[in-house]
Amino acid sequence: MELIIFISVCLIVGGLGSVATTPAIPTWYAALKKPFFNPPNFLFAPVWTFLYIIMGVAAYIVWKSGWDRSDVKTALYFFALQLVLNGIWSPVFFGLKSPLLALVIIILLWLSLLYVIILFYRISPLAAWLLVPYMLWVTYASALNYSIVVLNP
Question: What predicted TM-score, i.e. pTM, was given to this entire model?
Fold first, then answer.
């Protein structure tokens, strides 16, 4: 049951972000100049869904290591922080139509996620490794976000 809760929380964050994203894709986002490595729009939803699921699994593994442990609490607090940053990126980028502010947020997300991976690794290497695809995608998304800022001054 707890695993379902962890996964659901992550998926809800993604779902809330899509509220701001979906209406902007065919309008504002479509009009932006994008780099050659911009993926097709249909790819984002399945990739993010997969990433939110493995994020939830990773957090569950850490939580299962013992909520009474201070290192587990610290790791999950920072996991929550990166999840908040993840959750506000879409409303800022797509809702506020502010790629520059979104770039600042995604850099903070990247840094906090790196720290989470380090903290998770100390508790469960498996949980840390589960976050590696997410880190790779956030790195890619950061480059995409940066390119959009540069191409659309």
Answer: 0.94
Contact 35, 112 (CB under 8 A): no
How confident is the model over 51-108, as pLDDT tens digits?
999 999 999 999 999 999 999 999 999 999 999 999 999 999 999 999 999 999 999 9
Q: What is the pLDDT of residues 2-27, one digit of tens each?
A: 999 999 999 999 999 889 899 999 99
Could you tell me the end-to-end alpha-carbon distance of the chain, in angstroms, rounded to an integer?
47
Is 2-151 assigned to CATH 3.40.50.300?
A: no
**Cα distance between residue 128 and residue 30, in whole Å:** 35
Angle at 133 between CA 131 and CA 134, to 5 degrees: 65
DSSP 86-131: HHHHHIIIIIS--HHHHHHHHHHHHHHHHHHHHHHHHH-HHHHHHT
Going from N- to C-terminal start, the domains of the chain cover 2-151
